[in-house]
Amino acid sequence: MRDCRHAVRRRAPVGAHVILLLLLLPFAAAVARPPAASATAVRALCQTPLIDLSPEQRDARLAEMALQLKARWLRIDVSWRRAEPQQGVDDEAYLQAVHDTIASARAYGLKPLVMVIYTPAWAQDESLWCKPPPGYVAGVAYPFYAIDPAHLPDFQAFMTRLTGRLGELVNRWECWNEPNLWPYIWPQTTPDDPYFAIRRYVAMVKAFSAGVKAVDPDDLVVAGSTGPVGNNDVYRTSPQRWAGMMKVMGAGAYFDIYSHHPYTPGGSVNIRPDQPPNNLLTTVTLYNLGQLLRIFPGRNFWLTEYGYNTEPCDEFGGFAVTLLQQAKFLRIAYSYASRYEQVKNLFWYLTQDVNGVYTGLRKTTGWHKPSWFRFAGGNSVGIYALPYVKPGTRVKVRGKIACETFGPVPGRTVRLQGRRLGVLTWTTLTSLRTDDEGRYLFTPSVWRPMQYRVVWPEIKTSDVRTVRVY
């Protein structure tokens, strides 16, 4: 517990020209669907925890990401709070684990994006401890409190040490996670400064960048890292206001890549990635990402978190989709993101469900969700059927489903679809689960010429087989 008599520092509000700039943001044109572009959003992954796993567990995860899922980038979070628990004293064991994790990722061909987060207690603005969010105890140094400006040089020095320690293993660095949300910077506003959190964050980015580039000027800094929604109050700042004010405050001089997390928020009427959010002025999803792109038109954008929960999750407003919807939305998201020429990476969060978050490609039990196969690609649905049979014959429509990095896939639902010759639409006739070898066998009765195909829902559809009668 600490004494809470420190006063919050006053800061004059930004002038009227800033307000005018925010009002004139060209949002109307930016919400339209993006034009087709030649860029492709690279498949990338986030997974926590990695650093705290045993070397054997960590290597198994990394091998899966690189060799089976064929991801190219991996976002790894590093806690400043854990790395430097006392001013000027680094936790060598933790930082060695960080180094070993990143070295292993590199060995598997994964490119690491290191995201640094969480202010140590000693570096926090103690004047803020007096007024925590509702439900928290005053005087306790929770990790969400904003940095004390007097400790910005310490943040810069830490980044210089971290960059030097990791050397050539890392050349992309992300400053903080979702700083526009109160769990990462509290408070967002104060009575004296409606842009309090933004102002502190811009100062952090400046120190962060200086620390990184003092070691290697060619390393790139990723900033922004905004969550998808905010009401511009003490709890959350809209990503539009956040990016606009960062630009006004000159933050563009301190970073190379802008990042955003275009999740579909809980309570959304439209849950698909390519549909508009409830409020286009306070929320940025994939649909209206152009609102941010137009603020920093010359910068590459990385979407450093994205996903859909397959079970209700409090951290995401209780919002959940079905397993098949998750696979479908993953496909749509990568396709839609690729239409924005500035967007270079989309990081799916997570590889495996963890800590009550269910956005993973696998469940906590290890069971592979349909989205795992959609992300991995290389899927196949084989099909065979006799081309000619007598009327009324039960024809065997058989085959196997497989993934090139996984092999035969057992216990998955596949659907038999059929149509008459000359008919365009398909009708689902029946479904079943594949056996232990990934095989299926349908036996429909054929009375007239028919076409058949087998669908592995949201993953792959087989070729068409025509069966005629004689």
Written description of the protein model:
- With 470 residues, the chain is α/β, with parallel strands linked by helices.
- It folds into 2 domains: 16-376, Glycosidases (TIM Barrel), CATH 3.20.20; 379-469, Immunoglobulin-like (Sandwich).
- 24% of the residues lie in helices and 20% in strands.
- The protein contains 11 helices and 20 strands.
- The strands form 4 sheets. An 8-stranded parallel β-barrel has the order 1-2-3-4-5-6-7-8. Strands 10, 14, 15, 18, 19 and 20 form a 6-stranded mixed sheet that branches.
- Helix 6 packs parallel to helix 7 and helix 10 (323-337) runs parallel beside helix 11.
- It is elongated.
- Residues 1-33 have low confidence and may be disordered.
Properties at a glance:
20% strand, eight-stranded parallel beta barrel, 470 residues, disordered N terminus, TIM Barrel, elongated, six-stranded mixed β-sheet, single chain, Immunoglobulin-like, alpha/beta
